[in-house]
Structure formats: C-alpha cells, structure tokens
Amino acid sequence: MNKEVAIEELPTQSRAYEGKYNGTSEEKELEMGGVDIARIERVYQKLDYRILPAFWVLYFICSAIRSNVGLSQTMNQKQGHDLAQVLHLSPKQISTGLALFYVCYVLFDLPSNLVMTRLSPRIWMSRIVIGVGIIGSCMAAMRAAWSFYLLRLLLGIIIAGMWPGMAYYLTLFYPPSRTGKRIGRYFTAAQVSAAVVGLVSAGFQKMDGLGGLVGFQWMFLLYGLVGIIIGVSLLWWLPDRPLPPGEVRNRSRLVKWLPQTKPALTGEDAQIHYEDLTRVYHRRTWTFKDLLHVVVDWRMDLIAILLVTPLSDRFHHHRALFFSVPVCIQIAGLLITTYAGSQTNPWPRYGGLLMIGFGLGPTVPITMTWTNEIFQHRHGEVGVAAASALVSGLGNLGSILTTYALYTGWPADSKRGPKQYRMSNLVMVGILCMSILSAVAMTVLLRVVGNGPKAKQISSGSSTSEGEGVIIDGAARREVHERGLGRMWWRK
To answer: Among 232, 284, 363, 374, which is 20 to 30 Å from 442 by CA?
Structure first.
C-alpha cells in the first residue's frame, strides 16, 4: 500500500529539523537524508566527469558553426572573397538570412524538446550535432542568396532544441538545485569558441584559393566535418537515461542498430543515485493535457530572464537577487558605453562593454536553472522539456529585435557620430529594468501562489506505479534547505 505524503508535510518536517538543528547545512542534510552527503557528492562528481566534457565539446563546435557566418563577412575582403561578394548579397539579404535562423530556432525549440522526452536523449543530442555538422559543411557550397537562405533556415530547424535539451538532459541526472553550476561550466564553451574561432579564422584566410575554395568556404567545410565526427562520438560518450538498478533497457528495432553506451553509474553508485533522485526513474508518460497545464502555468515565467551561478545554487531560494545584481552591472555598462568616453578616448566605452559581458555571462545559465527548478516540481519531465524550450525560444527573439529594430536596423540611430546607437542602448536599459521587475514579480508570485506539485506527493520508499504521483526523494528533502557556504573548499 502506498504511503501518501501530504503536500504540507514537507515544509512542516523542515521546520522541525530547523528547530532541532542549529548547526551547519551539512548536518541538516545528513539528518534529513539519512545518508553520507560526501558519498553523494562523489557520485555527482562521477557524473560530471562523464557528461560535462561531452557537453562542453558539443556546445563549442555548434557555437562555432553557428557563428561562422559572422566571420565570413569580413574574411578576405580585399581579395573580394568575403561572403557578400562571393554570393552577391546585399546587407539586407544577409540580415534576412540571419533572421531566418532565429525564426526557425524559436518555432522548433519546443517540438524538438518534446520529442527528446519520448526518445533516447543521447541519440537525440547526437542527431542534433551530426545535423549541424552536415549543414555547416554544406554552407561551403553556397552560390547564391537562395542557398544562403535555405541553409540558414535548415540550420535553425536542426539546432533547435540543443540548448534547452542540454538543460533537460541534466535534470535526468541531477536535482534542479545542482544544475546551475553545471550549466555555467559548459556555457563557457560559447565564450571560448567566440575567441578561438576568431583567431583560427586568420589561418583559414591564408588558405584562400587553395583547392578552388575561398577562405570562408574552407572554414565552413572543416568545422562541419569536425561537428559530424563529434556528433557520432556522442553515441558512445553520453550515457542514456538512467534505469532503476537491475532493470534492463528495452532496445527497439531502430535503436538496436546503434552502438550501446556504458551506464553512467554502476553498483553502489547507481543505487545511491537511485535513492537520492528517485523522481527521474519513475517518470510519468505525459499527455497534451499535461502540456497545456505547463503552457498555462508558464505565464508567470514569460518575461523573466534569470541567472544562475554556483553560489546561487547554494542559495537557491534567492534566485531573483543573483539575477538582479548582474543585470545592474549590464545596465551600468550600457550607460558607460553610451555616455562616457569620446571618439578620441574610446577606452571608457571599452570598459563599459567589458562590464556588459561580465554581467551577461551568468544570466543565461540561471534562466534554464530556475525554469528547471519551478517546472520539474510542478509538472515533472514534460514541464522541464516544454518550459525550457519556451524560455530558450522566446529569448532568441531578442536577436530578431536587434537585427531589424535596433542598432543597424534603426537607420536614424545608426548614423555615425557621437550619438550613434544611443537610443538603442537606452532601449536595452529599459528592457533590462523590466527583467529585474519580472524577477521580483516571479519571487512574489511564487510566495503567494506557491510552487507545489500538481500531483500528489509520494515517499521514495513507497511502491508506486508510473504516473501515480510526485516522488519525494532524498534530494527533494534536502532542497527544502539551502546548502549555503557549507562544504566550500576553504571549509573542508
């Protein structure tokens, strides 16, 4: 017979523990979970070694292929071998091609992530990277505007679901309060890629004319081939969805022809992970009614852009604060870039740009983390898949806005002079201020409305069939408390 746990029971238990313990957060965790926290940390560290390097590499190569079109516009210009001159493109045609990518990215983010929940996440991620590599290689064969439009459109369709899919994949192995630091780690691949790809492009410019290809064509071709190789390697590299100890994976007709991958954890480690994160092993089969509930509930998160850092994982009850501080840094950077310095002394503006980059870095990982935290608890697996795709897709609408409405898309504001881009920068400041208000509103709404699960809660020790309720496992019990600064390197 199932042991049902009332929704109010968990906070009550946590208050009891708080009254009993005045010690460190580790002591509270040990008492609540009844397990060795250090042992659990080692299990998650093993998962880090298996998953995060693969995610870093795939995100690096996909970011490089995605951004190469920007470099191709300036490569070998003096020889007349840049993208615009070779394909006879006007600035408007290039902007249209760039926008087509983001339109498809927004439209297909959600369907791609929902498909990923039904199929093998490992195979789906491999499919995305292989597809991106193929499209990237084909871009070396572009000859006219129509081929540029077509390949940018296909790239948006193929790569859609990669970023939210990676966030969803992590929730199969980690509780949401632990995903922020991990997302931040592989998100650094985008920044490293931007720097490395720019430097390497100098080498591709030296290859201009070799084998009848111009420099940017060699760049598209070689990066695409590397992407295909990495995509295929992911079939062995990434672990598949975890199974309860002793359960054998059922391989369908199609999947049996693909290589198998070693499980992420075995033996005692697998048992510890199962007990600590039971919820992911007993997933519910979602329906379109469940998806409708997610979309309706997602209105609270519609305009909030959130951030995460390792520190915010430890104080996960204060996400809005960790979001607002970096955004304030971005606002200060935009104002410095707009009003400080001059044409003869541009260094203050350069400093403002550095501040913008510093403030922007942590905001993207926290977006996915807070989404995971809210919607996994309320709607389970389909909530994470759908909400993260919606957040990622609508976030990319900003690229369309800046292409057609701000900066170069605003002719009166893009005229050269001391006031160039001033109004666009001020619009961005207004948007950032709205995001801070959204984070505050999100925090207030969560306190007023609550973030309780839509289904009944069930103890992880109960016997339950699929779809009966929300599992309250060891990680969920510990997440009632913040970890704080416990177990930091200086306290070990």
So the answer is: 284
Q: Residue 490, SS3?
A: helix
Residue 463: CB atoms within 10 Å: 9
Distance linking the first and last C-alpha atoms of the chain: 43
Burial class (CB in 10 A: 0-12, 13-18, 19+), 157: middle
Beta-carbon-side half-sphere exposure of residue 93 (alpha carbons within 13 Å): 15
Answer left, alpha or beta for residue 107, where phi above 0 means left and psi between -120 and 50 means alpha: alpha
Length of the chain: 492
Residue 299 gets which letter from DSSP? G
Write down the pTM of the prediction: 0.64
C-alpha dihedral over 359, 64, 158, 391, to 10 degrees?
0
CA distance 34 to 478: 10
According to DSSP, the β-strands at 457-459 and 4-5 are: antiparallel
Closest by CA to 9, choosing from 458, 443, 455, is: 458
Please give the order of strands across the beta sheet that includes 457-459: 4-5, 457-459, 470-472
Q: Which two tokens stand for residue 186?
A: 């592989």
- pLDDT, tens digit, for every residue of 64-98? 998 899 889 988 888 889 999 999 998 888 888 88
Per residue in 373-427, pLDDT (tens digit) is 777 766 666 777 677 777 776 776 676 677 667 776 677 887 877 788 888 889 8
Q: Decide: helix, strand or coil at residue 435.
A: helix
Angle between the N-to-C axes of helices 347-360 and 363-395, in degrees from 0 to 180, rounded to the nearest 10: 80
In our burial notation (b when 16+ CB lie closer than 10 A, e otherwise), range 240-279 reads bbbeeeeeeeeeeeeeeeeeebeebbeeebbebbbbbbbb
CA 75 → CA 66, 102, 149, 211, 427, distances in Å?
16, 23, 20, 17, 32
Q: Are 198 and 71 in contact (CB under 8 A)?
A: yes
List the Cα angle 287/288/292 in 5-degree steps. 125
- Is there a contact between 276 and 35 (Cβ–Cβ < 8 Å)? yes
Return the number of other C-beta atoms located less than 10 Å from residue 20's C-beta: 11
DSSP letter at 458 equals E
Q: What is the DSSP letter of 317?
A: G
| Selection from 327, 357, 338, 339 nearest residue 433 by Cα | 327
Beta strands in 398-481 (DSSP E): 457-459, 470-472
